[in-house]
Design goal:
The complex is a heterodimer of chains A (161) and B (103).
Chain A (H helix, E strand, L loop, with lengths): L2 H22 L3 H22 L2 H26 L9 H21 L14 H10 L2 H24 L4
Helix pairs in contact in A: 1-2, 2-3, 5-6
Chain B lengths: L5 H23 L3 H22 L4 H33 L13
Helix pairs in contact in B: 1-2, 2-3
The chains are: A mainly alpha (161), B mainly alpha (103).
């Protein structure tokens, strides 16, 4: 029995439950906490596949910083308001998206589905990023710094209102 | 006959469903916070779907993942800052009132 496949199925079902909770939970703090769970489950799925570095990066940068930022902000704001919902339109769009991406996965990625991913070492990844993609890394660092300044200035603009 | 690697197949299938759920949340609610959270659900689904499809070249998939996660984390911080500013101005998170916000 392929235990990796069983674990992928278990993680997949848990990710569906977490995604449903993010979309439907009335309290936004609980919904964003479920988003942190979803991010961790996706990281576990990627680790099962052999993408260990992306898995660690997802937990540290995405769940540990970005999603925690959402949770803390929503907790401090204390939002309590009714939502206007239109489930019919949502179901149609969800079906369209699922059909579209199933087509993409079956056509563009058909060869990738047959290959077992090979683990990549940290040395190879960092070496490749710093040699072949150094310009991309520089752009990301500049963009992150600009984002930080922009976020602070936008958040301070509303003070006093 | 060649058989698809089952773990890849399972993760891609669940990724498509998670992304569809994100699209559902994005369109069914008019609340900006719900829409942000739904976009993040769709992003997680996309990551689950695309990385197994790139498994022929794992190092390229790793570079792709690192860049995408960095960009999405920066995007979250900017969007949350904009939402906080909007909430302080209008005392609401409904996207219906976006046109009424004074400059």
């Amino acid at each position: 029995m392929n235990w990796l496949f069983v674990w992928a199925l278990v993680m997949g079902f848990v990710s569906l439950i977490a995604a449903y909770y993010v979309v439907r939970a009335k309290d936004f703090v609980y919904a964003s906490s479920a988003l942190a769970v979803l991010g961790s489950i996706v990281a576990a799925d990627l680790a099962i596949l052999g993408f260990g570095i992306i898995s660690a990066f997802l937990v540290i940068v995405y769940v540990g910083a970005a999603v925690m930022f959402i949770i803390i902000t929503l907790s401090l704001l204390g939002l309590r308001e009714e939502e206007r919902r239109n489930s019919g339109r949502g179901v149609i769009v969800a079906l369209l998206v699922a059909a579209l991406w199933s087509g993409v996965a079956l056509s563009a990625g058909i060869y990738g589905l047959y290959v077992e991913p090979q683990p990549v070492s940290m040395t190879t990844t960092v070496g490749g990023l710093l040699s072949r993609y150094s310009l991309v890394v520089a752009l990301i660092v500049i963009a992150q710094a600009a984002t930080l300044v922009e976020a602070i200035s936008v958040a301070r603009r509303g003070r006093g209102n | 006959m060649t058989v698809a690697y089952p773990v890849n197949l399972a993760v891609v299938a669940f990724g498509i469903v998670v992304m569809a759920m994100g699209a559902y949340g994005l369109t069914y609610s008019r609340n900006l916070v719900r829409q942000l959270l739904s976009v993040e659900v769709a992003f997680n689904g996309l990551l689950m779907m695309l990385l197994p499809l790139l498994s022929m070249n794992t190092s390229s998939a790793t570079y792709f993942g690192v860049v995408v996660i960095s960009v999405v984390s920066a995007e979250i911080i900017v969007v949350v800052a904009v939402l906080v500013s909007y909430y302080r101005t209008s005392r609401s998170m409904s996207s219906d009132k976006l046109e009424e916000v004074p400059e």
